[in-house]
Every structure is written in structure tokens, then in C-alpha cells.
Design goal:
Blueprint (H helix, E strand, L loop, with lengths): L3 H25 L1 H8 L8 H27 L7 H23 L6 H25 L4
Helix pairs in contact: 1-3, 1-4, 2-3, 3-5, 4-5
């Protein structure tokens, strides 16, 4: 019989990889989301919108690199409560990004997906890492 941590780690890994792949797909299909944000026949703000969207994607990849580091170094691997939060965040992000791509949602919605599904879990991950490494808890 498997324990909870033996079950949560593979699910967390697969959910994180699915979210990562969806983010890569967003990068390659971002033009449709940017055009959706433009007023009719006015593409003068395209560069500003593109810079904002690329910044959100870059922050997402920074969060992924920190999360993969915490996961593979074993810093946050055996915390079952946090693993469940990561799983829920990444599955909801993958589903949201699927609709984001297929429905060509406005690009600024990605900032909300990033905030709820990347930034909040990453802040919690950094708190766990700091409490384990710096404070030795």
C-alpha cells in the first residue's frame, strides 16, 4: 500500500510539467491573445502589450525554476499539505491556460492566472525553504 507522500509526489510532478508545457504553448500562441487586446484597426500599443505579456511569462518561468529546484533538491518534497496546494494550483492553471489558448483570451488575464497559480504557491515555497534552511525549523 502506498503512503500519501508516495502518491502526491508523482501527481505534483505531472501537474507541474503539464502547467509548464501549457506555459510554453502560451508563449508560442501569444500573438492571438495580444491581438485580442487591441482596439479595432489600432496596433500602436502592440509593443507595450507584448512587453507586459513577455514579462509575465518570464516571471512564470522563474517561478518554475525555483519550484523545480525546491522539488528536486527535496526541500519541499515531503510536505504533504503543500504538495496538495501545488497540485491544485497547477491543475487549475493547466485548465485555465488551455482555455486561454483555445479561446484567445485577452493577454492581461494571464496576469491573474500567474498571480493565483504561480506567485502565491511560489511565495509559500520560498517561506518553506527559508524556514528550513535559514531558520533551521
Amino acid at each position: 500500500m502506498r503512503t500519501t507522500s508516495e502518491t502526491l509526489f508523482p501527481v505534483r510532478f505531472l501537474a507541474t510539467v503539464g502547467h509548464f508545457m501549457a506555459t510554453i504553448m502560451v508563449f508560442y500562441t501569444k500573438d492571438g491573445n495580444l491581438i485580442r487586446a487591441m482596439p479595432l484597426r489600432d496596433i500602436s500599443q502592440y509593443d507595450a502589450f507584448n512587453a507586459s505579456f513577455v514579462a509575465a511569462l518570464a516571471l512564470t518561468w522563474i517561478c518554475f525554476s525555483l519550484e523545480f529546484a525546491g522539488m528536486f533538491l527535496g526541500l519541499t518534497l515531503f510536505n504533504s499539505g503543500m504538495n496538495l496546494i501545488y497540485i491544485l494550483a497547477h491543475i487549475s492553471a493547466t485548465i485555465s491556460l488551455s482555455f486561454f489558448i483555445t479561446e484567445a483570451w485577452n493577454y492581461y488575464i494571464y496576469w491573474y492566472i500567474f498571480a493565483f497559480c504561480n506567485a502565491i504557491p511560489e511565495i509559500m515555497e520560498l517561506i518553506i525553504i527559508l524556514s528550513r534552511r535559514v531558520l533551521r525549523l
